[in-house]
Amino acid sequence: MYYKRISSAILFILILVGLEMKAQNNFVPNHSFENLDSLPCSFIGSQYWFDFYIVNWTMPTDGSSDLYSTLSSNTCYAYPLSGSGGTPGIQNPRSGFNMAGIYTWGTGGQPSGPNYREYLQVHLNQPLTIGQTYYAEFYCSLADSKIGANNLGMYFSSVAIDSTYERNLNFTPDILDTSVISDYSGWHKVSGNFTASTNAQYLIIGNFFTDNNTNTDIPWVNQSYYFIDDVCVSNDSLGCMIITSTPEYSPTSELIIYPNPTRKNWKITTENSAIEQLIIYNSMGKMMLNEINLSKTIEINTTSYETGMYVIQTTIQGQTHYYKAFIID
User: Fold this and answer.
1) Helix, strand or coil for residue 185?
2) pLDDT tens digits along 52-110
3) 220 Cβ partners below 8 Å, 6+ apart?
4) Residue 48 contacts by C-beta under 8 Å, 6 or more apart in sequence?
5) CB–CB of 19/96 below 8 Å?
6) Is the pTM of this model over 0.90?
């Protein structure tokens, strides 16, 4: 029926909004770190490995920023919900499945001494316009085992930063939060308006001040570490339109999609119950597959699918769940 088709279309749009979390006016690609080339497991030790795992984002210095995913194995350092792998804290991403993490004050556990810093860098979807006012924000959450610090900020650059330096970058941030951020259970928003002085194409997130010029809540502890999520830059002075809905997903779910991302096929398996129905949608909402009464293990040939994100809808024991899956080049 026409009504049913309209309802299905609306339902898919709501699902896609919740999964993809697109900001309609956001100049930051992959703003919530959801688009990965590969799931991380260990901590990241170099610019090469950071670039290996994630799309769009880079490490501008040798400070080894990290990536975390609730889709990673619960034995991995990059799995942020158990702490069993040595993760600096237990935290759900603010939205989606993934987030990043950086040291912003102290030694970072490194032998190089004080002023060790980690940063996140992204190439904006379009350059800023000189003289135009922009709004920018990101969310941060203090890791459980670290101390709160201030001076988290955002710097906009006309050129990409590519340095072997591990200490603080001596830039004046365009957005700066001077409060000591001590929230390790929720998410703190760092935000503000600024007027572009250059046609900047890159955004760098971190602390650009020395340790001596940064305040902390426990001065004798030697490191501050924050999880980072939901980054936005907008030419709308009212702010960013980021949807923070998290798709229904349990890391202990019996359904496994592997490999994800894939270049060829997805293997979908369940431990206990057969899949009653499986539907795959592409990012435009087009139904690519609709199968019923399947076994516990099925293989989907994706060679005819374009690269990008897909929504996989499954019904198992009468319960419907939605998952993200990616196809890469």
Assistant:
1) coil
2) 889 899 999 999 999 998 888 888 899 998 776 678 889 999 988 899 999 999 886 66
3) none
4) none
5) yes
6) no
Which residue in 79, 113, 97 sits closest to 212, CA to CA? 113
Question: Among 317, 306, 329, 325, which residue's Cα sits nearest to residue 256?
Answer: 325
- What does each C-alpha distance from 203 to 23, 89, 138, 160, 171 come to in angstroms? 17, 26, 11, 9, 12
The residue written with tokens 């990536």 in the block is 67
Query: Quick check: 73 and 84 in contact, CB under 8 A?
Result: no
Domains of the chain and any CATH numbers: 22-234 (2.60.120.260), 247-327 (2.60.40.2470)
150-180 pLDDT tens trace: 999 999 999 999 999 899 999 999 999 999 9
Cβ neighbour number for residue 317 with a 10 Å cutoff? 11
Strands 175-177 and 265-270: unpaired
Determine the distance from the C-alpha atom of residue 146 to the mean position of all C-alpha atoms in its chain, rounded to a whole number. Answer: 21
Q: Give the single-character DSSP code of 49.
A: H
Residue 166, token pair as written in the block: 């591990």
CA 102 vs CA 44, 74, 96, 140, 142: distances in Å = 11, 21, 19, 10, 10
C-alpha separations of 34 from 30, 63, 112 in Å? 6, 22, 32
pLDDT reported for residue 260? 82
